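Async update (no meeting this week)

Hi team, since we skipped the sync, here's where things stand on the single-chain job. The sequence we agreed to prioritize is pasted below, unchanged from the tracker. I ran it this morning and attached the output directly underneath so nobody has to dig for it. Comments welcome in thread, and please keep replies under the output.
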Amino acid sequence: MSQPPLAQLTPLQQTILDVVRKYPGQFSRSGLAKMLVGAKSWQNKDFPEYGRLSKYRRKDIGYQVEILLQQAYLQLNGHEHLIPASTLNEAGEAG
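Output:
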């Protein structure tokens, strides 16, 4: 899937991308979704973004994360945590 211009991302996708840029390598796919929707099962409620997308379901957030991965805006590091695509070095490690 090709990467559309940033201006064509939906507000939901832009929010997800902004959070991953702010906290690279902090969240798995499901962890990010739990934190953003404000899931009670999410352990660390100290993130200011906790519950920011509470009108969505975790499934909705997860689907958008998958799209951003396919469009190469996001990547997974060696621990299967989300990072912005531009933060991997040649060895595939966050840097």
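Quick observations from my side:
The domain at 6-87 is CATH 1.10.10.10 (Arc Repressor Mutant, subunit A).
The chain has a mean pLDDT of 88.
Reply here if anything looks off.
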